[in-house]
Specification:
Blueprint: E1 4-8, H1 12-15, H2 21-34, E2 40-44, H3 52-62, E3 67-70, H4 81-86, E4 90-93, H5 98-108, H6 110-119, E5 123-127, H7 129-132, E6 135-140, E7 148-149, E8 157-162, H8 171-180, E9 187-190, E10 194-199, E11 202-208, E12 215-220, E13 226-231, E14 234-235
Parallel strand pairs: 1-5, 2-3, 2-4, 4-5, 6-8, 8-9, 11-14
Antiparallel strand pairs: 1-10, 6-7, 9-12, 10-11, 12-13
Length: about 240
């Protein structure tokens, strides 16, 4: 059984509304791995407080190519969350405040339901907060402009993560600093437009929606300095 995570540093319908390459790649993966021509795709907009505009933009992007739905957590909902998520082919997590999102998930048991769905072969994906959440930890702006270590991600993928690696000028130096200081374990950084594709703990490939987007392995070298190694990428265009 595939245990798939597609972690987008940035991109997808909310950042690249005219460039569906990453989102279409996720749909194609789901078709192959779940055997359904129109995959069921569930959007979690928890990190944005279930922003109505964000949810509407998701439906506009996905309704024609999938059975699109969403899981609201800021209104009363009587459905069985675990059964609902297990019935999906893709869970797509939006951006926003990662720490707040994880706290709300844990209150409602969404963290446990997501793990069950991932173990059952449901494709997990998302950008920004929806990329960072699958790792053990990483760099987050949940507490303000200064990037800090994420307290506790879901841990589907071991190690740390930095999204928006080329999109915000402080991302690269801050990630290096936290790895050098031992505040973060080794991990992967992804530019906007780059998506890390994992099967369980293993990085299978990196796909991009932009010709210049890149991804990197970042770890602490023998001299205590951060070592950044480029990972091969495949441009989807």
């Amino acid at each position: 059984m595939n245990r798939t995570v597609v972690a987008m540093g940035g991109g997808g319908f909310s950042m690249e509304p005219d460039n569906p390459l990453l989102d279409d790649h996720v749909i194609a993966l789901a078709r192959v791995r779940r055997g359904r021509d129109r995959p069921r795709v569930c959007f979690l907009a928890t990190a944005s407080g279930d922003s109505p505009m964000y949810i509407a933009n998701f439906y506009a992007a996905f309704a024609r190519k999938s059975e699109a739905t969403h899981l609201p957590l800021f209104v009363r909902d009587e459905r069985d969350i675990e059964a609902f998520l297990l019935d999906q082919d893709v869970v797509y997590v939006g951006g926003g405040n990662t720490e707040n999102m994880l706290a709300v998930w844990r209150v409602h048991g969404v963290d446990r339901a997501l793990r069950r769905a991932w173990e059952a072969g449901v494709v997990m994906t998302g950008l920004s907060a929806g990329s960072l959440c699958w790792f053990e930890t990483g760099t987050t702006d949940s507490f303000g402009r200064s990037l800090a270590p994420l307290s506790a991600g879901l841990g589907f993928v071991p190690g740390s993560h930095s999204p928006h690696y080329d999109g915000e000028e402080t991302r690269r130096p801050r990630y290096h600093q936290l790895v050098e200081d031992g505040a973060l374990p080794a991990g992967y950084a992804a530019d906007d437009g780059a998506a890390l594709v994992f099967d369980g703990p293993d990085l299978v490939e990196v796909v991009t929606s932009r010709p210049t987007a890149r991804a990197y392995r970042v770890e602490r070298g023998p001299d205590g300095r951060a070592v950044e190694t480029a990972v091969p990428v495949r441009y989807l265009g």
